[in-house]
Amino acid sequence: MDFNCIHIDLTSFSFTSSDMNRYLKAWINGCNFRMKYLSLDLRPLDHKILTDGIEVEEANASIVRSYRIPILRGPCVFEGGTDILSKDGRRATFQQIIDRDYLDSDRRFSFKMVVWPEGGQ
């Protein structure tokens, strides 16, 4: 997935944990340089596969961070999340909130990723 977009919002795609792992690695290496926000509705991802081979920093759920995005009515809020750094030093946070009470084979949950402004979060 190589886009030249700032905001990416896709629904009803069947990306796997391995697909998303490849995307995160590509972002780390400079792909989608302009991206600031990614939103996908995906089946539950396996965090271990998602982060395989990627240096990550897990934020505690008590750490709440928000990012205002002009296309959204309110801020994108992360309670915890997983941080990664691109090779050029940009920091991003991603998170998928899964409601375990509603798991079934077709259920999709929001996966969000924000690239923080320089000096932010």
UniProtKB/TrEMBL annotation:
<dbReference type="Pfam" id="PF07735">
    <property type="entry name" value="FBA_2"/>
</dbReference>
<feature type="domain" description="Sdz-33 F-box">
    <location>
        <begin position="3"/>
        <end position="40"/>
    </location>
</feature>
<dbReference type="InterPro" id="IPR053222">
    <property type="entry name" value="Zygotic_Embryogenesis-Asso"/>
</dbReference>
<dbReference type="InterPro" id="IPR012885">
    <property type="entry name" value="F-box_Sdz-33"/>
</dbReference>
<protein>
    <recommendedName>
        <fullName>Sdz-33 F-box domain-containing protein</fullName>
    </recommendedName>
</protein>
